[in-house]
Each structure stands twice: as C-alpha cells, then as structure tokens.
Amino acid sequence: MYNFVIVSLSRFNIEFGSNIRDIAIELSKNHRVLYVDVPLKRKERWFRKDMLAVLEVKERLGSRKPMVKVNENLWHYIDDSVLESMNGASNPKLFDVINYVNNRRVAACIRRGAKLAGFSDYILINDNDIYNGLHLKKMLKPRKYVYYLRDYLRAMRYWQQHASRLEPKLMEAADLILANSGYLAAYGREHNPESYYVGQGCETAHFVPGKTAPPVPEELKKMSRPLIGYMGALNAERLDINVLQYLATEMRGCSFVLLGKEDKVFESSSLHQLPNVYFLGLKEFDVLPAYLHAFDVTINPQVLNEITEGNYPRKIDEYLAAGKPVVATKTKAMEPFNEHVYLANDGAGYKRLIERALLEDSPERQRARIAFAQDHTWPNSVKEMLHAIDKQFHGQEVEVNV
C-alpha cells in the first residue's frame, strides 16, 4: 500500500467532473490518498466571495474542519493559506520570485495536511499544475514526484507567457510523467525519458443504456429531430464556432443541442440567433444520461490547434458508452477511436458524416461502441499508473504505450 498526496489545478469538489478526482477515488480503493486543494489566490478570497470555491473554504474553516474523510482511505484537506496572483507579471525574474513564494506556501500546506493524515512519507502526484508544482519536489522530498499530464497548457492564453519556459524544467525534475494520451506522453518524453501513456478513464456505467430508456427531458420534446448533441464546456479555444454555425445553417431540419457552460466568446456568438441551436446550460451529472440517450448523433467539433491535437476528449467515451454515433474532429488523440467514431476535418465533412451516421446506425454498431468504451475505465487507467510507479521502485523497464 502506498501513501499518495495529490495537488491539482482542480479543486476536489469541483462543480464538474475531473480526471484527478476520479483517479484519487480509484487509488483509494487500495491505497491511502490525501487530496490537498491548492490555496486560493488573494484576489479570489477578497473579490470573488460568491465563488463556490471561496464559499467552501469559508464553510470548512469556519466549522474548523480543514480535513474531511471522504472514504476509508481518502482525505480532503483545505488550508487557510492564500497565494499571490502573478500571471500578469511579464518580467520572468519577478514572476519567478512570486512563484517561488507561492510554491513555499503550497509546500507548507501539504506538510500540514500530511501531518493530519499521518503520512510520514508519500508519493506526490501533481495534476498538471505547472506553476504551483515547479519546486515541490525539492521542497518536500517525496518518495517519488509524479507529474500527471492531461493538457497541453502552454498553448492556452492564460499559460502562454511563462509555461513554455517552466514546464520543461518541471518535467525534467519529475521522477515520472504519466499522460492520458499518446501525444502528451510523447511530448513528455522530449524532456524526460520516464514518460508513459496510461490511458483515460470514464464512468462508463453511468451512461450505458439500461433495460428501459430514461424519460426524454421535457425541454427536448419540443425540438425537431434529429437531435445533434454536444456535452461539455463551450470554450472557443477548444470548440470551432464556425463549424457549428455552418452545420446549423446547412442542416436546418436538425436541432443542435449544446449542454455546458459558455465562455464569453460563445455567449456573444451569432449561434444564439439561429433558431435550431439550443443552449441548455450546465447540467448535473446525474441527469446527463437522459439527455445523451435522447440524442440521435453526438458531436465534438474541436478547433484544430496545439491544445486539442493531443487532448483526450473524455466526452467521447461518454458518448460511446451510451451507444451513440459520434462525429468528431480528426486529431492525433482521436486515432485510437478510428473504428468507432466518424472523424471530420471541416464543416462540410461534419455535415456529410452526421448524415452518414444517421443512416448507418444499428443495434450492432451500438453494442460495438459500448463494448469499446467499457475498456476505458478508471480501474484500467489507474492500473497502468500503478504499474509504472511499481516499475520505478523496482528499477525495471516500463513498456512505452503510444
């Protein structure tokens, strides 16, 4: 049994799903796990008092419960520390000084949490937090320092200024890099030979059809069929608004249903003026299967860029677990899905493949999609993670997956 401490870009009680939360829960079936929320920024604590994360910190610390036991082997720790905002610092030296101070505060937070959990030593997993995790190996001296790589952050606007300079340093220092796509594992190996693809999990059982279909949500009943559905964040850095506009204009007989939180670009887009495009907002995880099972075809119209090329789209497994036809943008990360997903390059390709998917759908294809998705589980992914960690401790070679 190992002791694991996890720090992440995502808080444990995030309002939508996250890989690392699911990994923590899966690890805790056979190992002891401490999930430490990275402290909030000072400006968040002062000026965003209605933010759910701020409210959670206030409630937990007000009730003097910084540590909560989630299950027999999993603890969640929240600290009263605050971090300084530094991403706006264009001067690298100034940024590095502030970031070092933040790292010291995160390290102190982890020490306090580990003491409460009774962890004298542990494996530290850093979930893609480039800045706050940069110096933690040196400051904490864990048994192993694992960098979990699930996004190409250096291509995103928020991270562009400093991540390309700092992430290679973090990866070089890590004992192990574990990635959820072959593309990201290859990127990791550019800086550290101990970089491995460990797959991606999904709560497939939540989406697999039961003996009877769930009732169709009322807001879908009034829409014209076929229903073309998307579930996930509506973020213009990742999704191609032009493809959606093309489809809605060229396929006026279809209803395009978008579930998820919109960024400002989507909020101001002309998609809102199209009569067959429906923005239904963020839905609770428990009700998602009812919407998904009502869709005739599902889509993931990613814009092709450095962010999406190697990004493993978890939603594809959810779509497939429901047995639904899927049309997605052709990327490196989508190559393993070739046999079960229609892959498009542009709006015209999406239109042609959606029409084809509607014609070709069958019970046999649905069963094949479900079976394929059911291989992509958190037990399977975490098994690969533990295999790589075990091999590190025993000095054996790890098979490189691509």
Low-pLDDT segments: 398-402
CA radius of gyration is: 22 Å
- SS summary, helix count: 16
CATH architecture of the largest domain: 3-Layer(aba) Sandwich
Compute the number of structural domains: 2
Regarding CATH, which class of the largest domain?
Alpha Beta
Q: What overall form do the CA principal axes indicate?
A: globular
Task: Please bin the fraction of helical residues.
Answer: 25-40%
How many strands appear in the DSSP assignment?
14
What do the pLDDT scores average to? 92
Topology at a glance:
Blueprint: E1 3-8, H1 19-27, E2 32-36, H2 42-47, H3 52-62, E3 67-71, E4 74-77, H4 92-117, E5 123-127, H5 136-140, E6 144-149, H6 163-173, E7 176-179, H7 182-189, E8 195-197, H8 218-221, E9 227-231, H9 241-250, E10 255-259, H10 264-267, E11 277-281, H11 288-294, E12 297-300, H12 306-309, H13 314-321, E13 326-329, E14 342-344, H14 347-360, H15 363-373, H16 378-394
Parallel strand pairs: 1-2, 1-5, 2-4, 5-6, 6-7, 7-8, 9-10, 9-12, 10-11, 12-13, 13-14
Antiparallel strand pairs: 3-4
